[in-house]
Design a protein that fits this description.
Length: about 170
Amino acid sequence: MEKIRLQKLLADCGYCSRRKAEELIRQGRVQVGGRPVKLGDKVSARDYVTVDGQHIVVPKKKNYRYIMMNKPRGYVTTLSDEQGRRCVTDLLEGIPERVYPVGRLDKNSEGLLLFTNDGNFANGIMHPSREITKTYRVTVRPPVSEEQLAEMSIGVTLDDGFVTSPANIVM
């Protein structure tokens, strides 16, 4: 049986995200076969993995889930929020698998949002190399200036330093 990184196994089982799994491993809260592990260790689905003493069950077959949601305004597109804001996952009930949003919409935006537990699918949609076109319909008040339209058509630098893709604007 193929061995994979422990943090990937925990994420694939739906226990937590890879980043959270890495944090748990660093904190010494994860064990394999009763022994502490370190970041980067590899395991197989047959290994006895525990987090804080709780046995992690590895499902025999991965059940992929794909959900479309019309995200309402007022929710942030994240799994949890340290500022206590309402999260899109608060709107999901009764879903046994851990799903996460594919892409994001601003807190004050509404529209189609996809959720999945299929990492290959999510990466295939979000990765820039795929060049998947996204269409947004927006209402702007006050009206957008010619200078702002020109800036959007070449890409806008965001607060975090990233530059958006050029926008094709139809009015």
